[in-house]
Amino acid sequence: MADETKMNTLKALLAADLSEARWTKSDFSGGSPNDCLEVTAVEGLGYVLRHSVLTEHRIPLTTSEYEAYVKGVQAGQPGLMPNL
C-alpha cells in the first residue's frame, strides 16, 4: 500500500498547477541564466525539479526523497557529484 501512496503523491506533484510557483536555482549556477536546475516546493506533497531551459520536463520528488538527495550531496557522497 505504501507504494501506491507514493505513486499517488508523485502523480499529484506532476499534476500540480505550478504556474505561480517560486522556482529557486543554486547561487553556484553557471554564468548563463539558463544553465541550471531549479526546484520548487509543493506544500503538503514534496518538491519538483526542472531544467531552466526544458521547463516542461519535471521530476517529482517526495519530501523524504528530496531531503535524502540533498543530504547526500552535502555529505559529498560519491557518485552524486561526479568528479568533484
Word description of this protein:
The chain is an alpha+beta fold. It has one domain. The chain contains two helices and four strands, in the order αββββα. A hairpin with a 3-residue loop joins strand 2 and strand 3. It starts with a helix and ends in a 10-residue tail after the last helix. 7% of the residues are buried. The model has no long low-confidence stretch (mean pLDDT 90). InterPro entries: DUF397.
Fill in the keyword field for this structure:
alpha+beta; globular; DUF397 domain-containing protein; 23% strand; DUF397; 84 residues; single chain
Brief summary:
InterPro entries: DUF397. This protein is α+β, with helices and mostly antiparallel strands and 84 residues long. The chain is built from two helices and four strands, in the order αββββα.
Strand order of the biggest β-sheet: 1-2-3-4
Helix content: 25-40%
Shape: globular
Poorly predicted segments: none
Tell me how many strands there are. Answer: 4
Cα radius of gyration in angstroms: 14 Å
Number of helical regions: 2
Order of helices and strands: HEEEEH
Biggest beta-sheet profile: 4 strands, antiparallel
Gap from first CA to last CA = 39 Å
Beta-strand fraction estimate: 15-25%
What do the pLDDT scores average to? 90
Provide the number of structural domains. 1
Pfam family, one: DUF397
Domain DUF397: 21-73
Protein name: DUF397 domain-containing protein
